C-alpha cells in the first residue's frame, strides 16, 4: 500500500498526461484478455507453401542435392514446425533434411512426432538421432556414425548430388559427412537469402505479430510509472506475447535513466524515477514465429521531456525519417550508405552500429552498418519484398539514450511502415 501511495503522489501535477493514442492499442475487448488472430487458415497455408518453395528454389540455384537444417528458426520457416525452440537452439536434438529431388523429412525429438500433425510441407517424420554429449556421453561416436549413415543413405537413394548445404553443425558432424564424400555449403546463407523476400501472406502474418507487440508496448506504457523496476515494465511485453500465442523475447533490452547509456544493458531491478527516460527494444518473436523488432523511448510517469531529452529525441526521429524516405528497391547497400543520415560527431561514440537490418522470423540478412562503420566492400541490393528495420540510438556524454526503431516493407514505391505505435509528441 505504501508503494502505491508513493507512486500515486509522484504522478500528480500539471505536467502529467496519458497518451490516449497508446491506450488504443490494448485489446479492445478488454486489457485482461489475450488477442486472437483473425487471419484465416488459408493465409498460413499459403505462407507455408511459399517458404518451402523459396528454399527449394535456392537449392536449385546452388545445384544443391540436400539441405540439412538444425537452426529451429530455419526449421520453422521450412515446415512451420516448432518444438522446444529455445532448448533446441543449444541442444541439437531435432533437424530437417530437404532433398532437391526427393522428400522433405523432419527428424523429430523422440516422442514428440505428434506436434507436427497437419503440417503440409513434411513428407516424412523420423525419430532424430541425437549424438550430443548431454544424452550420448561415451556413446557419441557410434551414434554420430549412425546419424551420418542415415543421412548419406537418404541422399543416395533420392539421387541427390554430393553438395549439401548445412546451417548449423558441430565440427564432429561436419567431419563425418565430409568423410563420406559430401561437400558442405553454407546453409545459413542459403536460408537467409530465401527468407529475405516475403510473400503477401507472410506480411499479413507479420502484421499480426506486430499488432500483438504493440499491445504489449501499450501495457509497458501503462506500467511506466515511478517506483516500478525495469524488469516489471519489460515483463508486460513478455506477458502479452505469451498469452496471445507468441514465442519468446530475444533480448532484455529495457533500461531507464542513467542505465540507458551505454546501451546494451539488460533490464534489472533498478527502480525508475519520475521523468527518467525509459528506452527499449522489443526483439519479440511472436505469433506465427515472426519477429516484431520495435524500439521506443518515453518518460517515466508520463511527464513532458526536459530540454535535453527533446533534443536527443528529435535527432533520433530525424535519423529514422531520413533513412526511411530514401529506401527504394534496386538501391545498392553502398548507395544507401552514401545517402543515409549522418550522425553528428558528438553522438558517434554512443552510436548503434546498425543503420538497417532485415527481419523475418528473426533478425536476418542484410545487416547494413551505420556510415562510420560501413565497409564499402559489403555488397547487395535492397529488393522489393524485403522487410527492413530502420534503427536509431542517440546519446552523448553524460546523457540518457534515445532508442527508436521501425519495421518497414520495401514496395515498388519505397518503404511502407508496418508498425504504427506512435512516437512521442515533443
From TrEMBL:
Coiled-coil spans in chain: none
Domain Creatinase N-terminal, first and last residues per copy: 51-197
Keyword tags: Aminopeptidase, Hydrolase, Protease
Matches recorded under InterPro entries: Creatin/AminoP/Spt16_N (IPR029149), Creatinase/aminopeptidase-like (IPR036005), Creatinase_N (IPR000587), Pept_M24 (IPR000994), Peptidase_M24B (IPR050659)
One Pfam family here: Peptidase_M24
Matches recorded under SUPFAM superfamilies: Creatinase/aminopeptidase (SSF55920), Creatinase/prolidase N-terminal domain (SSF53092)
Record bears the keyword Phosphoprotein: no
Domain of life per record: Bacteria
Domain Peptidase M24: 204-412
GO molecular function, one term: aminopeptidase activity
CDD domains reported for this sequence: APP_MetAP (cd01066)
Protein name: Xaa-Pro aminopeptidase
Species for this entry: Rhizobium esperanzae
Amino acid at each position: 500500500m505504501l508503494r502505491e501511495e508513493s507512486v500515486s503522489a509522484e504522478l500528480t501535477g500539471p505536467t502529467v498526461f496519458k497518451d490516449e493514442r497508446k491506450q488504443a492499442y490494448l485489446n479492445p475487448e478488454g486489457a485482461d484478455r489475450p488477442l486472437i488472430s483473425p487471419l484465416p487458415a488459408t493465409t498460413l497455408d499459403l505462407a507455408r507453401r511459399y517458404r518451402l518453395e523459396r528454399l527449394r528454389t535456392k537449392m536449385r540455384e546452388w545445384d544443391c542435392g540436400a539441405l540439412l537444417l538444425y537452426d529451429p528458426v530455419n526449421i520453422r520457416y521450412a515446415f512451420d514446425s516448432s518444438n522446444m525452440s529455445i532448448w533446441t537452439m543449444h541442444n541439437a536434438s531435432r533437424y530437417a533434411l530437404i532433398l532437391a529431388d526427393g522428400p522433405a523429412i523432419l527428424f523429430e525429438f523422440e516422442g514428440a512426432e505428434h506436434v507436427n500433425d497437419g503440417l503440409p510441407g513434411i513428407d516424412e517424420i523420423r525419430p532424430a538421432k541425437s549424438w550430443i554429449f548431454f544424452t550420448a556421453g561415451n556413446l557419441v561416436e557410434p551414434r554420430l556414425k549412425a546419424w551420418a549413415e542415415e543421412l548419406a543413405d537418404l541422399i543416395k537413394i533420392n539421387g541427390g548430388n554430393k553438395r549439401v548445404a548445412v546451417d548449423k553443425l558441430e565440427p564432429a558432424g561436419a567431419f563425418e559427412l565430409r568423410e563420406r564424400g559430401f561437400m558442405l555449403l553454407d546453409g545459413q546463407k542459403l536460408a537467409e537469402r530465401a527468407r529475405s523476400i516475403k510473400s503477401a501472406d507472410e506480411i499479413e502474418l507479420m502484421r499480426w505479430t506486430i499488432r500483438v507487440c504493440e499491445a504489449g508496448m501499450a501495457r509497458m506504457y501503462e506500467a511506466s510509472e515511478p517506483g516500478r523496476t525495469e524488469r516489471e515494465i519489460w515483463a508486460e511485453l513478455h506477458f502479452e506475447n505469451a498469452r496471445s500465442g507468441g514465442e519468446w523475447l530475444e533480448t532484455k533490452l529495457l533500461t531507464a535513466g542513467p542505465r540507458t547509456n551505454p546501451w546494451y544493458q539488460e533490464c534489472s531491478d533498478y527502480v525508475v524515477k519520475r521523468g527518467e527516460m525509459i528506452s527499449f527494444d522489443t526483439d519479440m518473436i511472436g505469433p506465427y514465429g515472426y519477429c516484431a523488432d520495435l524500439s521506443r523511448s518515453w518518460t517515466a510517469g508520463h511527464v513532458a521531456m526536459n530540454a535535453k531529452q527533446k533534443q536527443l529525441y528529435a535527432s533520433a526521429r530525424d535519423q529514422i525519417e531520413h533513412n526511411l524516405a530514401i529506401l527504394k528497391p534496386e538501391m545498392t547497400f553502398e548507395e544507401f550508405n552514401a545517402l543515409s543520415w549522418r550522425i553528428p560527431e558528438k553522438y558517434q561514440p554512443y552510436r548503434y552500429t546498425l543503420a538497417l537490418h532485415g527481419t523475418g522470423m528473426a533478425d536476418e540478412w542484410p545487416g547494413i552498418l551505420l556510415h562510420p562503420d560501413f565497409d564499402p566492400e559489403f555488397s547487395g541490393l535492397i529488393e522489393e519484398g524485403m522487410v527492413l528495420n530502420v534503427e536509431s540510438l542517440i546519446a552523448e556524454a553524460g546523457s540518457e539514450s534515445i532508442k527508436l526503431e521501425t519495421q518497414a516493407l520495401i514496395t515498388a514505391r519505397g518503404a511502407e511502415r508496418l508498425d504504427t505505435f506512435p512516437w512521442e509528441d515533443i
